[in-house]
Amino acid sequence: MSPSTLSHLKPLRLALSALAVAVLAACAVQPAQHADLPATVHETAPAAWRIDAPQDAIDARAWWAQFDDPTLDALLGTVLSGNLDLQAAVERVKQAQSITTQKHAALLPQLDFTAQGAYTRQNTPPPLGYVKQAGAGLALSWSPDVFGGERLDLLAAQSNLVGQQHALDAVRLALAADTASAYVDLRWAQAELKILQDNVGIRQRTLQLTQDRLKYGLSTQLDVTRAQTQLSELQARIPRAQASIDHQLNLIAVYTGRTPEAVAQLALTTPAPIPSAPAGVPQLLPSEALLRRPDVQAAYATVQQRAAEVGVARAERYPKFSLNLADGVLAASYLGLPTLTDNLFSAALSATSPIFNAGRITADIEQSESRMRESQLKLQQTMLQALREVEDSRTDLVSTAAQTQQLHDAVTASAQSLKLANQLYKGGATDFLDVLSAQQTWLADADLLNNAQRERALAAVALYRSLGGGWSESGEVVASSPGAARGG
Asked: Domains in the chain, start-ordered, CATH in brackets?
């Protein structure tokens, strides 16, 4: 064949090579198809949720600041920087990042430096004597990802990384909510102890009054016994209230990553009011609230990971290629002969394709598809659970608003009634049973108000938690448009 003919064939070969690469790329395996997250949310959430979100309902960064409690703000700062579970979640993110780096490296060629040296004695001719060899070179190995199996493996690792980042957000959100709840319970227990101590003081003065009146024949021994019984029963409740305070302090200490013995360092032993919940309560909530929840985001990342793993399993049906190149020099010296130097070069291209595997590949594909369907069911279950949590916490917050105000009025009225009963009893215008009744009513109303304030604060914490806190440190909420589908 003439040189001119070869020159005309060269462009044709290049064109055929480009066409072959394009055909192989078109045959690359794709992830399994699945709906994107906004489409799944809009399909699951009730139609009544599809309204505009209240703009001032959630702080974008620190929702607990809505309680306007500097001590709570400082406590949560300490917890989020020292909690051990949170630090462990950070390490899991780092592990997922390392796996992603490994999967990305598998797509690229690997270049190694090789070196060797040998000193051998040969006893069989020719030649007789010692042999010295030394060499060095480079070795290149590459497995081109023609059908996309390695690329999908990287996609699965990236989805796992996203899931771990959202799982970290979920741990952070749960930790902040649990700490805020423990703080509310601490303030409730301290308020309970204060109510008991105030009532003990009142009943001690009442007991002293009945004893003084008994001396002058203005009361009976029965009145004194009743007063003593009421005082003793109330004093018996104080140790339990103190134990509740200690339990919450110990729990908060563990949240901060410290031992319970270090609770004194938290500066929480000074009683303070239960933090007041924000006044505004959203009447309806948007379906987009689910997109802010890190557990929903993490569940969707698992769906993406499983979809990519389906593609990885399908790619096992196609051939795999491997390219190995090596080049270097080798110097050899024989006793009595000059040193010889030679250039070493080798190139090898190999391909393997499955023929018979007793159904293993098909079983792997079916298992991967089943795991993807399972992850989709878990995503739907997570969203349903989220809907329930949001509705329950919103309902609790709404119901406690009117209850708290009514109990405020009841405590004010019962305190006034107790004051009047004591004045009348001192003047002899009423008997001791009216005083006991007024004391019991004031104690019961104070307990109810304290409990209502606790329930309202806990409901606010639960609402912020159910809304995902309104923030996610792993990035944007969702950028894809509803109705789109991933995969091919």
From this structure: 29-106+145-317+368-486 (1.20.1600.10), 111-142+319-352 (2.20.200.10)
